[in-house]
Amino acid sequence: MAHLQEAAVKKINEICDRYVNEKTPLMMILSDIQKEYGYIPLEVQELVSARTGVPVAEIYGVVTFYSFFSLTPKGKYVIGVCLGTACYVKGAQQIIDKFSEIIGIKPGETSKDGLFTLDALRCIGACGIAPAVTINGKVYPKLTVDVVPKIVNEYKALEANE
Amino acid sequence: MSKINIKIEGISYEVEAGMTILEAAKACGYEIPSLCAFNHGECSKGSCRVCLVEATGARGLVAACVYPVAEGMEITISSPKATSARRTSVELLLSNHNKNCQQCDKNGKCELLHVAKITGARDDMYVGEQTPTTFDQISPSIVRDTSKCILCGRCVERCKNAHGLGILGFEKRGFNTIVAPAEDRSFAKSPCILCGQCVSVCPTGALMEASEIDRVDEAMKAGKYVVVQTAPAVRAALGEEFDMPIGTLVTGKMVSALKRLGFKKVFDTNFGADLTIMEEASELLDRIENNGKLPMITSCSPGWVNYAEYQYGDLLPHLSSCKSPHQMFGAILKSYYCEKNGIDPKDMFVVSIMPCTAKKFEKERPELSVNGLADVDAVLTTRELAKLIKRSGINFVKLPDSEFDTDIVGEYTGAGVIFGTTGGVMEAALRTAAYKLTGEELAKVELNEVRGFAGIKEASYTLAGKEIKVAVAHGMRNAKVLLDQIRAGNSPYHFIEIMGCPGGCIAGGGQPYVKPCFLPNEDADILDTFREKRAKALYSEDASKALRASHKNPQIIALYENYLEKPNSHKAHELLHTTYQTREKYTK
After folding, report:
1. How does DSSP classify residue B123?
2. Global ipTM
3. Domain match, B344 and B332 both
4. What is the pLDDT of residues B256-311, one digit of tens each?
5. pTM for the whole thing?
6. First CA to last CA across chain A, in angstroms?
7. Are residues B457 and B492 in the same domain?
8. Are the C-beta atoms of B326 and B230 separated by less than 8 Å?
9. How many helices (H) and strands (E) does chain B have?
10. Domain count for chain B
11. B205: which DSSP letter?
12. How far is A4 from chain B (nearest CA, A)?
């Protein structure tokens, strides 16, 4: 816990205290931390454990059970490629492979510059526009492999201009 | 409790409402094959699907271990549908299991193999991918092999129930699920106290002690002067490994077996316990008289010491500086005993037979050595000793009784014997502290206030006009209550005994497994009563001794006269005392 900044410790304790009256507050606490920091490393889990009395192993179990929670920092732009049945049939595998190739990371990984995270998603309920991709919530419908480089370059350009 | 009427296999029975089908069937004389179910729901409840039965009013088959009985319910255990479903459940478990049973130390006490036999599970019915596995053998105490884990969750619950720790948890999801400390770490890199309670409930070979039998073999082969000492709790349980009833005292047979195994000398750790009492009682009185840190807490249990170092670093000055009995004895053997007998301490190899897995870690502590020589060289659990005895072809049950070696060390009093159960160290210490304070022996040496299995026991004694308040806790969940009092500054006690395992050493993580499915002759509630039965064996040995207080042990008196001078002397500190350190919980 030593390398957590004082402000982060304060914030995490404050998040834990939001749910003191809940019977099973763990999911809500972790959800808030995920939203606040983008990931929940072990040091943070130890802090939550100390505050709530829930064992660290149990917290770690919840974090690794739900794919919404992450143990490592996510990139600035999180690319979610739907690999549900409809998207898969429409060629989503080739699309995720293309993202992989261009950015140089495997699904589940984050690029070294912290710009992109590539996630393989199960059905996101957008089968009508298969194959579907989301980037930070923005939906890209009926995507084809040839536009993938263009999309990646757009985000890179956006970053360069900031 | 109200009664209800049910039928099992077409026969009517009256059972208590609120029972599960499994419990009700047991009460009526039926053993439904079950696997993950453990005492009072200390498991993941219904996950293994081995106890499936048919029950009217239920949709499909139900898991007997979680499904409650209801008025008029008709339960069928033996229908083709139920037997075939149970067999399939076991076959599915086996399909993702490392089946190297021949090399597995759990063989003979494996509950999975037991249900496989009962249900008639066939080999390799479902062949396919296996869950990625972890094999952790970094800690000197416990080995975790997830290739044998059936995800029953008993270990997860035991760690939480006994200690409030929850070192182990379910990680990841679906087919990749494993039971592990956070981040699938080694026990050695988590705040695990290495007590081995998880090992004692594990149905398979997924959790085992780290065996040191090879180390002992090598020392013997190298021609070392190999001596052995046995902890008090071992004699109250070793017989169980040879199908003797729980609670059988086998002191004499155990000594015979150890002599036949080729140990040069067979000593009783109780001598070390008597020595511990001399040092600890003096330390306590010194702290009381000279405004030292109070309450003083015992330091015999290495599981408890680990817990203190991880969780209560601020309270370490409250721990007695005394080494644990077998470490003290090891130090005396390699100094006093070697000197008197012309043995080079470098040639001596001390083996401790312990009911404990944490002792394996304890003996590796660099602070528990004198002049670079470890006090103790190897620690074997009670189970490992049984394995050695069986391997050597010794018929344990038929062995005659023998006496421990007592040439210049090794004599012991009843006070040493009761160290093996919760409250025992306290009782032994008070017998001697009372004498030191008042100059008189206690009129009645049995201190019933500190006996028994209540989570926390309290008592108050007036000695030489001084009120001494004491408390006893076992299992870290109970200990935490007393420790938080100290932290808050409102602990009323002078002296506290803490033992790591619930019940104390008699139910330690290195003791013979208590698995009801292998104990058809024991009572149905044996998981609740075995501690008491083993403790009773120790109290009976205490009662049978002529000397029952440590300060009356003639060899202890001689040891001080000839060598140590007096308790807490400079020499005693060099050999018999230790230090503690705060430990980081999750190290890289």
Report:
1. T
2. 0.90
3. yes
4. 999 999 999 999 999 999 999 999 999 999 999 999 999 999 999 999 999 999 99
5. 0.92
6. 34
7. yes
8. no
9. 20, 20
10. 3
11. T
12. 14
